[in-house]
Specification:
This protein is mostly helical and 247 residues long. The protein has one domain. Helices cover 74% and strands 0% of the residues. It contains eight helices and no strands. It has helices at 19-74, 80-92, 96-100, 104-121, 126-130, 136-143, 152-202, 216-243. It starts with 18 loop residues before the first helix and ends with a helix.
């Protein structure tokens, strides 16, 4: 890299320069821009990989368990502990860790499949959780549909109840998926920026030091690179996961 610097008058304003000095300025700007851009790109990729690794080692499971618990509280589903246990048993055969560790899109897909099975059988705790705006007596009729012989009129009424329950449960799943998506949008960016900042201190910092600089300019540079890299990391992570077929 050329060590020439752009001459200026001390106030940041470039003085009259020769062609050679102008070329040196352009070359310096090119090298500086390339260094910053490559640093941001590499740090974004590292942040994306580390973020996914941390998610797979328990953070995703813990966060989604918390989100779903708060979602149930917001829907006045009590007692919450029993509802969470019933949810885990219905969706994940009791293995809550595996269920909560899935990406939220796959988790909602699992819930949809479990709900359809329970709707067909008329039994299951998910109906009480997701079809909360259906009258309790209608849910009881649905749950007892296989325990009695029904007349044609009762079968027609039951078909209407099934459609009502299905639509209500579908809205419940949509509400949960929107809630999960909104939470993860915030968590992804905050967590990625934090990881990116840690990387900046330990690995990818200003060219002359391996730790956060003492000068204001260096701190601003490290903070800017961390924020930009952390903001790009979720997009890069999703892109890599889509390529690998995990989304």
């Amino acid at each position: 890299m050329n060590d020439s610097t752009c001459p200026h008058n001390g106030n940041g304003i470039i003085k009259d320069i020769s062609i050679d000095q102008y070329q040196a300025c352009v070359e310096q700007l090119h090298h500086t821009t390339w260094y910053v851009a490559s640093t941001i790109l590499m740090q974004s990729i590292l942040t994306a990989i580390l973020t996914e690794a941390f998610y797979n080692f328990g953070i995703r499971s813990w966060v989604q368990r918390l989100i779903i618990r708060q979602w149930m509280i917001g829907r006045n589903l009590t007692p919450v502990k029993e509802k969470m246990t019933a949810f885990q048993r219905s969706v994940g055969m009791g293995n809550g860790s595996n269920i909560y560790s899935l990406p939220y899109q796959q988790l909602c897909g699992q819930i949809t499949n479990a709900l359809r099975n329970q709707l067909d059988s008329g039994e299951g705790a998910l109906l009480d959780i997701f079809a909360r705006d259906v009258y309790p007596e209608n849910l009881e009729k649905l749950k007892n549909k296989n325990a009695q012989d029904l007349s044609n009129e009762e079968q027609n009424d039951l078909a209407m109840i099934e459609e009502q329950v299905f639509n209500s449960a579908d809205r419940g799943i949509d509400d949960l998926q929107i809630t999960l998506a909104q939470w993860w949008l915030k968590v992804d960016y905050i967590f990625s920026i934090v990881i990116s900042f840690v990387l900046s201190q330990g690995l990818l910092t200003v060219p002359t030091t391996w730790s956060v600089g003492n000068s204001t300019e260096e701190r601003i540079l490290v903070l800017a690179v961390s924020v930009i890299s952390g903001s790009l990391a979720p997009t890069i992570r999703n892109f890599l996961l889509n390529i690998l077929g995990k989304r």
